[in-house]
């Protein structure tokens, strides 16, 4: 693959645009406007989830852009995710159809299991669930997700927040192989071993929190604000955020930067017409800290908690 190619071919032949718009914390009109702005700018990949409570707005924006003739349905890659409260095999198809209805679409490009851990179901409105975790085996959940592919309702299915051992367990017991694992990945948490493992099994790593949720007032994270980051930005005539996203693309992952700001939505997509040289790619390794931004600490005692293993 050329580093400047805009798509990754998944293990089922499907093509995934290599930069997607993240939408966590894009609520209501923000989600609607940012999805529309992103499509106008050229994004063809949107990442949402049942728990983000914005599937309706994301879907509305997509449908409007289709109606305006800006895109066709097949031009846009839509990912959503099965919530923790819906892991019970008897609920999976109904939960999927809820997302499909929210989005107003007749199929989803990629349906992810958001986490390997299930939460007790109370009702669909309690989207975030509670910390009453269940012992539902993620393999049983996976088998129900496979049926969504059989039905033609999900073009592909994948994992999120799975460690290597959990991924292997799915691979050894599945009928339909996951195409991706969506995990935290950015210069301060580089996922070197998990990336190598995914590559070996022909899975794509999608990078959530690709900018590590910047806090400009604290000049955090360093890879966006320190002197080296500023020097790289100057050298390439880009922002440090663009350098970081470009870095992720060059190490083979698919970044999903979230923004509700049209200027930053455009900035995060303007990463296809330059390339970091090998020395600068290597220089980014110094930012790795091994500290997660999203540790899901409340679930740490669970038998399927993914982050006790080294990777
Ligand atoms: N599978 C999972 O468990 C998870 C999935 N995700 C997915 O990944 C996406 C991205 O992760 P997220 O947690 O949102 O974190 P990001 O690293 O994408 O950071 C988002 C934050 O960065 C700001 N920002 C965006 N672009 C820039 C820029 N160019 N310069 C400076 N600041 C910028 C945004 O503010 P503003 O909007 O004002 O621009 C927002 O506050 C999520 O939105 C979601 O879709 C995220 C976490 C977990
Ligand atoms: O996808 C997600 C975005 O990040 C949140 C945590 O900060 C998660 O709870 C959620 O699953």
Q: Would you give an account of this structure?
A:
The mean pLDDT is 97. The protein has 311 residues and is α/β, with parallel strands linked by helices. The strands form 2 sheets. The protein has an 8-stranded parallel β-sheet with strand order 3-4-5-6-7-8-9-10. The protein has a two-stranded antiparallel sheet with strand order 1-2. It has one domain: NADP-dependent oxidoreductase domain (TIM Barrel). The chain is built from 11 helices and 10 strands. The protein binds NADPH dihydro-nicotinamide-adenine-dinucleotide phosphate and 1,5-anhydro-D-fructose. The site of 1,5-anhydro-D-fructose has 5 residues, from loops. GO terms for molecular function: oxidoreductase activity. This is Aldo-keto reductase family 1 member B1. InterPro entries: AKR, AKR2E, Aldo/ket_reductase_CS, NAD(P)_OxRdtase_dom_sf, NADP_OxRdtase_dom.
